[in-house]
């Protein structure tokens, strides 16, 4: 990877033992992960963001690790403007050196040296699993980091996106392009100049079929309204009201492509048992205990919900990325009666009826079997 500031920094950041987490600073710096398949337009987007008018000091990190030839790839982002003078160029590979903490240490070291940035953009490699990158920020947030994950933006190639999405993987692995869309908070369908209306509609539909929750915008040369990309607060429990509204609009998606990732959503009235919900989620995410009718294990890549616990006046937000999940009380009070729990699951081999029945019988208080 490269982090940029003018001076050279060769050392990989050191691992620091975590015993006493520092007090959470008043102001945390948002990180936006920019992902997307090879050549979709990620770097073009970074360039665009850097050169657009904004009053932010932005640090860009290229996570090119693992791409071999990319190791010596110099930074492709704009040379113009004064932004550069603040940047430090870390040696390639540092972000991903080995363990998760390394990447964060690199950023934290950078901030220590150069003062705070207002914003951090992280471009992953085209083949990266952004969920893994996202979880690293998430874990760190709980350790009192200076930075927080604002959102995951996935750039999709309007021309080749469909082909990339349908590519069959051996070993039944989930294809990277689909994975990247599954975890996205925003998808930018880029290079619309290369397709006609019909092709555009097809790729839009394919994106939607994977992720029923994601916001979709279209662009040429990755030119998008910055307010649609930055400060999404996608994981922020303060935005609970917003999420509750959004979840109401989510619909189940149909598997567009064979064995593809899809979205299922359901609503259930009543209060949940917090313990039972934890068990349910862990069985689902960690133990992969739930199977579809064909006996294949359900795999969840992204999870969101607004849930109600008995005796709690506030709505609780559920967020999950891969195997990590989080339950956080939101400032939002329950208004409706009965309270309606809303859950959205994005993943593979998901069977809505089986999930919902399991949820109702084990998690909803006062339901059968509980
Ligand atoms: N025709 C067309 N070309 C585009 C558009 N956006 C980007 N490109 C070109 O597509 C190529 C790849 O763009 P990049 O921004 O480097 O893509 P990337 O996702 O960063 O690529 P990798 O980091 O290699 O995965 C470049 O040659 C861009 O100039 C667009 O809207 N239309
Ligand atoms: Zn790039």
TrEMBL record:
Alphabetical list of SMART domains matching this protein: CobW_C (SM00833)
Annotated InterPro entries: CobW-likC_sf, CobW-like_C, CobW/HypB/UreG_nucleotide-bd, P-loop_NTPase, Zinc-reg_GTPase_activator
Span of domain CobW C-terminal: 261-363
Pfam families associated with the record: cobW, CobW_C
GO biological process: one example: intracellular zinc ion homeostasis
One annotated GO molecular function: GTPase activity
GO cellular component: cytoplasm
Chemical reaction(s) catalysed: GTP + H2O = GDP + phosphate + H(+)
Keywords: Chaperone, GTP-binding, Hydrolase, Nucleotide-binding, Zinc
Family: Belongs to the SIMIBI class G3E GTPase family. ZNG1 subfamily.
Protein name per Swiss-Prot or TrEMBL: COBW domain containing
UniProt organism field: Gasterosteus aculeatus aculeatus
